[in-house]
Amino acid sequence: MYSIIIVDDEVNTRNGLRDYFDWKNYGIEVVGIADDGRTALSLIHDINPDIVLTDVRMKHMDGIELIQHLYTMEQHPHVIFISAYSDVNLLRSAIQLSAIDYILKPIQFEELAVALKRAIAMIEREQMELHKQQDLLSRLNGINGLIQNQKFQIENLPNIRKDTKCDPSELISNYLQSESDDLLLDYLNDIFINTSSNLPIIYYQNIGLQIILEASKCMTRLTLYSDYIICLEQNTWKIVMQATSMRDIYDSIIFYLNTLCTHIHSHINNNESNTVREAKRYIYNHFNEAITIREVAAHVFLTPTYLCSRFKNETNQTINDYQTAIRIEKACKLMHDPSIKIRDICFAVGYISQSHFNRIFKEYIGKTPSSYQKSVANYY
Description:
By secondary structure, the protein is of the alpha/beta class. The chain folds into three domains: 2-124, Response regulator (Rossmann fold, 3-Layer(aba) Sandwich); 150-268, no CATH class; 274-377, Homeodomain-like (Arc Repressor Mutant, subunit A), CATH 1.10.10. Helix content is 62%, strand content 7%. The chain has helices at residues 11-20, 37-47, 63-70, 88-96, 109-149, 168-177, 183-193, 201-221, 227-242, 246-268, 274-285, 293-299, 304-315, 319-334, 342-348, 354-365, 369-377, and strands at 2-7, 28-34, 51-55, 78-83, 101-104. Strands 2-1-3-4-5 form a five-stranded parallel sheet, with helices on both faces. The longest helix is centred in the middle third of the chain and has 41 residues, at 109-149. The protein is flat and about 80 Å long. The N and C termini lie far apart (64 Å).
């Protein structure tokens, strides 16, 4: 059973939501109500609910300030905003603060249900991630135990570079999060390449294992530890343990670290959320169907208003523009075949009215469909 607190300065709204919405149908229990943000904050600290449904504009402390306080907590609830105002600035603030949804009053129970389903889906996903983290911790403890049994600990990694101010753990973390940090490469070169040491290979294998361990911890802190990373880690571990030379260990560790770097920066540089990417995927897969924004929003567990704002904020285009661009792109490809009639292409890409299709096509391409088809058909 999930728990929720309702925060609204209108008594009818508070009590109406508590008494008339079918919370049990969604596995949710109302564990508290509050009439302003300050009272709600105290209640949240005491009860620690899974979800907070809060008005935006209230006395003493508004919903935006409330969520800012909540996000300083180590474990904070998911927030759904409700408001009587279709305020662009408030909506933008909600998006920036990663609120689950933004529902306009009067509240439609259907929209509230969609927002709650999304909140529950996110909670379940976080619980799965927590289990993964616990599994990881268990695995890392096992690795650490093996290393300690060999009497090699991360604190005792060779301090060959006397001019290095960072310890090995910091070097690994800095390298993974920076595209131009060569200190770790110099450090590893000094250990594995520029050395005349006669120490046994197991010594260098254990250094490799410690580097894997520290890199895994870094990925965990960045919440990027995934099944792909686990597989990569296990393969690198196997290569290091089977290595017969310091060069083999060095090459496998460098490949491992550089792969992690690529993985990290691909996530950092991608400004689109998983929600918007899933919405785009759904639209692309159904580009020639008469899908509505409401359908797309339901697919990603958002209300239509909130999805439209979030989509525009992250992609700089509307959902309709994105769908139209896909349809026109598909139409252009079909027009390379002069045997296909414009009318058939119109229907194939999802338009019912040919005159509407002709107008949209010309707006995007600058030519009518027939003239464009003639121009591209000349290449065959």
